Structures are given as structure tokens and as C-alpha cells.
Amino acid sequence: MSAVINSSQRLNPLDIRQGLAISQERMSSLLKVSTKTVTRWEKGERRPSNQDTLSRLAKLKEIKELGLMVYTPEGFKEFLNTPLPVFNGRCALELLQLGEYETIISALAADYEGMGF
């Protein structure tokens, strides 16, 4: 149980959401929780505790951090919202909704290494 608590303390939902430049509604959809739950987390009234939610939140944090290493905040927002050939004409936010985190991480890593698509 302590590992879950420690993870939830390091994962700041507000910081992650703002870094991804998405609404609370989109964040709640990605995490499969209610918008009210996201609001409570952001206000510090509660912390994420479900292991699946923590896992999804950790992946979103990883994508946010890598994305902001590769792009400016505005460029990262464009990356997330633009359909790209590497994603078969879909945008990264669509892939996030499908849980295809590794596909996005791979594309960001390729861009970081200068081998972008």
C-alpha cells in the first residue's frame, strides 16, 4: 500500500494536465474517472489511489516530460492534436484515449534523437 501512496504523491495531476494542455474533461476520460474526481485531485482533497489510474497517470507524466523536452509547450500541443503519418493519420490524443502510450513515447523519442518522422 505504501508504494501506491508514494506514487500518488509524486504524480501531480494538475501539473500533468497542464503540461498536456488538456481540459479536466479530457483528463478524466483518459484516466477513466469522473471530472469531479480530477477536480478533487487537483484541489488536493484526494489523491489517486487505484493502481490502474496511477499507471495511466505515470504514463501521461512520462509523455508530458518527454514532449516538453522535445518541443516548446505550443509545439507539444500541436504534436498532440495533429494527425500524423507515424500514427496512421491519427493524433496523439486519440492514441492516448486508446491507451497506446508506447507508440507516442517512441515517436517522441525518435524526435528527441533527431530521427523524427
TrEMBL record:
InterPro entries in the record: Cro/C1-type_HTH, Lambda_DNA-bd_dom_sf
Domain HTH cro/C1-type: 16-66
One GO molecular-function entry: DNA binding
PROSITE patterns for this protein: HTH_CROC1
Transmembrane segment boundaries: none
Domain of life: Bacteria
Protein name: Transcriptional regulator
Species this protein is from: Gloeocapsopsis dulcis AAB1 = 1H9
